[in-house]
Design brief:
CATH class of the largest domain in chain A: Alpha Beta
Number of strands of chain B: 0
Oligomer: heterodimer
Distance between the termini of chain A: 39 Å
Helix content of chain B: over 70%
Order of helices and strands of chain A: EEEHEEHEHHHEHEHEEHEHEEHEH
Largest sheet of chain A: 6 strands, mixed
Helix content of chain A: 25-40%
Largest interface: A-B, 29 and 28 residues
Number of domains of chain A: 2
CATH topology of the largest domain in chain A: Rossmann fold
Strand order of the largest sheet of chain A: 6-7-8-3-9-10
Number of helices of chain A: 11
Structural class of chain A: alpha/beta
Number of domains of chain B: 1
CATH architecture of the largest domain in chain A: 3-Layer(aba) Sandwich
Distance between the termini of chain B: 31 Å
């Protein structure tokens, strides 16, 4: 059984008479790269601030490595990157890291500092002041700061926001490296579905203070994802055939495009069911292609459904 | 103990603003010269010219100059060096980052208050010391510390720093939980109003600097400032500080 790094149970939080979190629950297992996604104003940053002990929750419970998030001992086990990095501009990269080692009541460990700077690719800029760094370099330094006291869990609030694609790629590589080689747990929020899809094994989608989607990415795809089935045919399709196919609502036929019939079938419908039906009505099937729906499509569907309500 | 690193970093934060430091030192110099000149030309020399003054009275007046210098120079620190570094720390999420570590709100509050207090303390002790020694050696031909009353020394070198440390606690309290501007307003009102009050009381001989009562009056003001903080301490929490950083 996997041990839990983060456990959030039915957390509610209001700020200035507005319900920000309406009873959210999720678990992050040790060794996970957990993606916390959602649109602006969904409550991601509020959740992260609760996990970092910056906000008190109104009800429910939240623990990190078995300790309440308000407990100082829990925070010693956490490294973080918050929006706006919080680095001292007038200090060098090394001085920033030394400072945070001291803040965590650890003695200055130059070897560890060297190692994390190496890990984030800033070893050659170690003696430069943070104010001379680009946004991407600052994010990497913030990541180094998150690691410098050797925490077990990393909580990162949009660590790749506002930086260029190559710097985003660097950060993703570093995160994967941290999980694989340093055996840390990573919890990170992002708007970038592509990024989450690439590195996370588990996700939670937050919208309007509620978790709309939560679990292993692969399982979620199976549950939620409406795969797109493309059937190529050389037969001529008449209206009678189309009407007959449309009657089968589960098949999810939605359009003809470049001589292809496009379906978004329900989970219980097999590809062979559709093919058999097409053959039955006299449509010859030349080729079939199936495309898994992306996280972005799932995300858009859920957010759109919520907006429609 | 996390206070040491936070004080150190806060001091570095203050001293990174070179122009602010130059302005501060400039004001300190102007004030020290003005007080010295006023003390010399308008208080001591007219008294000396009467030929009626005794050594103990002269020492008392030098003490008033020393106290006034300590009060004003320590206080200027809060008006000049308080707001810019704290605003920057709040906007750049330095405060939020600190609070997300195992540092407590109290540690951050006290450490930041101590950091701002240190430059004022150094200036507020060093310059009055130089000034009183100069006047004492010039007009009394002896060290001020040898000729003065213990209550004058305690008021100048203990009560004034204690009072301004409590002011530092109060303005940081207000600056962390609410707007930094409110803190600067308090400092800007406190310095002229309390210094005018005390200097007037002393100059008009309503209260005497060389008495325990004056010393206790200073300590009472420090206590009031501290009690204001304590009465509102429930407001000094991470959530309110982080929310104030957003606004």
């Amino acid at each position: 059984m996997h041990k839990l790094a983060i456990e959030v149970k039915d957390i509610k939080k209001s700020l200035q008479d507005r319900d920000i979190l309406k009873g959210i629950s999720f678990e992050v297992e040790q060794g996970d790269i957990f993606g916390f996604i959602g649109p602006n104003g969904a409550g991601k940053t509020t959740t992260i601030r609760i996990l970092l002990g910056l906000y008190k929750y109104d009800s429910g419970s939240a623990t990190i490595m078995g300790r309440d998030v308000a407990d100082d001992e829990a925070r010693k086990k956490v490294g973080f990157v918050i929006d706006g990095d919080g680095l001292y501009d007038n200090m060098t990269a090394i001085a920033n890291l030394e400072y945070y080692q001291m803040i965590y009541e650890k003695s200055v460990d130059k070897k560890k500092i060297g190692k994390v700077l190496e890990l984030v690719g800033l070893a050659d800029r170690a003696r430069d002041k943070a104010q001379t760094f680009s946004k991407g370099m600052r994010q990497r330094l913030a990541l180094a700061r998150a690691l410098v006291h050797d925490p077990e869990v990393l909580i990162l609030d949009e660590p790749t926001s506002g930086i260029d694609p190559s710097a985003q790629l660097d950060i993703r590589k570093i995160l994967l490296d941290i999980v694989q080689n340093e055996k840390k747990t990573v919890f990170f929020s992002s708007h970038n579905m592509d990024e989450v899809q690439k590195i996370c094994n588990r996700i939670a989608l937050l919208d309007k203070g509620e978790i709309k989607l939560y679990g292993h990415l692969d399982e979620l795809r199976k549950q939620m994802g409406k795969n797109v089935l493309t059937v190529h045919t050389s037969s001529e399709i008449n209206q009678d055939n189309l009407d007959e196919i449309k009657q089968k609502k589960d098949f999810g036929f939605y359009k003809i495009q470049d001589g292809n019939l496009l379906f978004t079938p329900s989970i219980n419908v097999k590809t062979s069911d559709i093919i058999n039906q097409l053959v039955k009505v006299g449509i010859e099937v030349d080729e079939v292609a199936k495309k898994e729906s992306s996280l972005e499509e799932m995300y858009n569907n859920i957010v759109r459904e919520a907006e429609d309500k | 103990m996390r206070m040491g690193p936070i004080i150190n970093a806060s001091l570095r934060s203050i001293f990174q603003f070179k122009s602010l430091i130059i302005v501060y030192l400039g004001i300190v110099l102007i004030c020290a010269l003005a007080i010295g000149l006023i003390g010399s030309k308008l208080i001591i020399e007219p008294i000396m010219s009467n030929g009626l003054i005794n050594k103990s009275s002269l020492s008392y007046y030098i003490g008033i100059i020393g106290y006034s210098t300590a009060f004003i120079l320590t206080g200027i620190n809060y008006c000049v060096l308080f707001s810019v570094p704290l605003t920057r720390d709040k906007v750049n999420k330095v405060i939020e980052s600190l609070l997300a570590t195992a540092s407590s709100v109290k540690e951050v509050w006290v450490a930041k208050s101590v950091a701002l207090f240190i430059p004022g303390l150094l200036i507020g002790v060093f310059i009055p010391y130089l000034l009183t020694e100069y006047f004492s050696l010039t007009y009394l031909s002896s060290s001020f510390f040898a000729s003065t009353n213990i209550w004058i020394l305690l008021s100048t070198y203990l009560a004034v720093p204690v009072m301004f440390f409590c002011l530092s606690l109060l303005i940081h309290f207000v600056g962390l939980v609410g707007n930094v501007e409110n803190g600067i307003v308090i400092a800007s009102i406190f310095l002229p109003s309390i210094s005018a009050l005390f200097i007037n009381l002393l100059a008009r001989n309503v209260i005497s600097l060389d008495t325990p009562l004056f010393f206790l009056g200073n300590i009472a003001i420090a206590l009031i400032l501290y009690l204001i903080c304590m009465a509102n301490r429930s407001k000094l929490n991470k959530e309110d500080i982080v929310l104030s950083c957003q606004s």
